[in-house]
Amino acid sequence: MTELRSELIAKRYRAERRFRFYGATALAVTAAFLAVLLVSIVWQGLPAFLEKKIQLEVTVDPAAVDAANPVAGDYDKLLREGLRTLFPEASSRVLRKALNGLISTGGSDDLRSRVVADPSLIGKTLTVPALLSDDADLYLKGQQTGVTRAPGASAIQIAPLEGEEGFLITGDTPEKSPEALPGQLVQAGAVNLRITAAKPGYVTAEALTPMEPAMQQLAAGQWQLVTLSVPEQDRRISDVQALWLEKLKAEGRVETGFNWRFFTAGDSREAELAGVRGALVGSLLTVAVALAFALPLGVAAAIYLEQFAPKNRFTDLIEVNINNLAAVPSIIFGLLGLAVFLNFFGLPRSAPLVGGLVLALLVLPTIIIASRAALKAVPQSITEAALGVGASKQQAVFQHVLPLALPGIMTGTILGLARAFGETAPLLMIGMVAFIADIPSGFTSAATALPVQVFLWSDLPEAAFKSKTAAAIIVLLVVLFALNAAAIYLRKRFERRW
Amino acid sequence: MKRIFLTASLVALTAVPAFAARDQIRIVGSSTVYPFTTAVAEQFGKSSGMKTPVVESTGTGGGLKLFCAGVGEDTPDFANASRKIKKGEFEACAKNGVTEIVEIEIGFDGLSIAQAKNAPDVALTKQQVFQALAKMVPDKDGKLIPNPNKTWKDVDPSLPGVKIEVLGPPPTSGTRDSFAELVMEAGALKFPSLADLKKSDAKAFEAVWKTIRDDGAYVEAGENDNLIVQKLQANPNALGIFGFSSIEQNANTIKDVPIDGVKASYESIADRSYKVARPLFIYVKKQHIGTIPGMAEFIAEYTSEKAIGEDGYLAEKGLVTLPGEDAEKTRAVAKDLVVLKSEDVK
Q1: Domain A147-228, what architecture?
Q2: Which of A427, A441, B242, B345 has a beta carbon 3.0–4.6 Å from B246's, enabling a disulfide?
Q3: ipTM score over 0.85, yes or no
Q4: Residues 223-282 in B contacting A (C-alpha not used; CB under 8 Å)
């Protein structure tokens, strides 16, 4: 008998250990998934928080910038000229286009704001940072190709090939042939060459930029051998652009800064200019509308249902429907919003007002259910005591029960809003899935929302938008994290237990 | 507390103002044209000093439905389309009073089949693609049978013996419609029995090439090209169906599969030797010009050399631009705002 019992006890202990093991495993697996997700998003997104600029000496030409109206000046042209003085070898139209492609179309903003602030700069030469284009930016962040750059190990001679296009590179003695492989790049000053073939004793090369057909002697260390791991046709930066960027880097002109623009700019089709401000403001406006509608309605409904409403079939039906509503797919609310707010009431498309109304409907059931639970958790004795000293039912509810239930109501509301913050599907139907470059200025101006911005960027073909997408996700996660932390804080701070 | 709730709801209710006349252009439509129209919209906003147009990505069909809903400030001014407007849509437009539509062709988009960079090279014909992806294929005697092909080798002995797995857009997508028309229909016509069927029963023939198999060989991977790119990298045996601009931008991870011996490239699409390409359009609601400010300037910006020209900024974004005389034609249509006639719509 005792043996049997101890065996039973051991079995129970084993079962408990197994259960604990399952629990711990489930937790570990979840944590691992979460960690993988977060690490990959942060890893992809972090580069987007940095931006690369180059320092250029620019002469503010009075012909390009009118002192009377400095805002309208052609600052892009000034930057391009500044860049061209560094690379005089970019003489043909194609090469100039490649060179201009290194700077962003919005690269002149810094220069413009400086000159507008101080028009006395017109006519002077100043050093300004110019924002690089997304492709150049990705190249310098090492996301386009692997790069190795080594100073030339031995002296070389470059001479034009006889009878055909191209150049011949030899060492100073026939035995000391330069060690270079086809595809590698040679740079020295304004000389930009690509090795085409390596033969015993010499290599041949083609000029990427126009070169004097004269012999040149370069000592060891005077020239650079650049190797790019990804072939030219497979990357967005051409060989000659890579050589120029390498030269700018070697001259210390490239600087890395924090990408403030990401938080101050609206959407743009140029990845390096795009920011989340428009989407963030749109999200905040939308959620503010949702809060303004859903909180009073939800709490009022909860108070009535919990404290005043008679318990009959009708209120049961309402209760079942509220619970059902909480499980309705969010796109349905979007369809409802389209039919009711846009088509019937004639409210404007893409407006945070309509988005907020739709999201208010979406979170209303959550708020009602959470509020009812919070009201129910307040002990009956509080109401009874209030009624006992002569308070009316309304006084008892509003002055005693509601303040005690408020932390629970707040928690439920914040969690509901956190859900609303992350919704895209209902916004699709009411026109908030859109390219909107201007920062929304009010509840009826066109706006989009953060999760929609993530969705739209993820669909764009440019590689630079991949890290922008991840960065926007990080912003969204931070906002959601803050909301949830606020919910926990409110609960801990004001919660009372009985 | 009550007072706070009351004021909050009051504030919320009074926040509904009277709506001023719209001073911002609104554009809806195709997600394929979206990257180009947004680029033009941004340029327009920067250079004109007017508000940047709002461009919604709703899909071609959804966009034209909104566009055709009527005339007035609450309807869009432009629709992006990755195919021509259909007869039914045109009639719906006319019924709702949208009688003056201008069709502007802006360029081409190539559709391509791609595979992961590290996968062994394959080349396909339209006929092979049809045999691999159609739900019903003709057997040796020309009788329609459910698609028996499991591997590419089953389709053609010269192809590798790997499982047929093609990732592509869902039926709601304009890309899918174009793929069916340009590849599947052309592939089906190579079979004499199906060519006969087209003559005898066009409806039945259409059902054959339009119906893509649903037994797992064709995977509906959503409208997001970048997602398909990532899936291809993970699975070198799979093929993906894309817009050409995605191939161009992701050339370091995926490569194009030649169709009928022609590789998709900027040149082959522009000179029309690559047949799997479709024109892209914007539709203009002419009745809005004059009411909504900036429409004429926006059209001028869109059709300018600096946008749709060979070296224009849209080419940089992956648009295959119109060759010289077609671009001239587009510019003429845009300038004179030639209204689309019902006999030009199929």
Answers
A1: Beta Barrel (2.40)
A2: B242
A3: no
A4: 223-227, 243, 245-246, 248-252
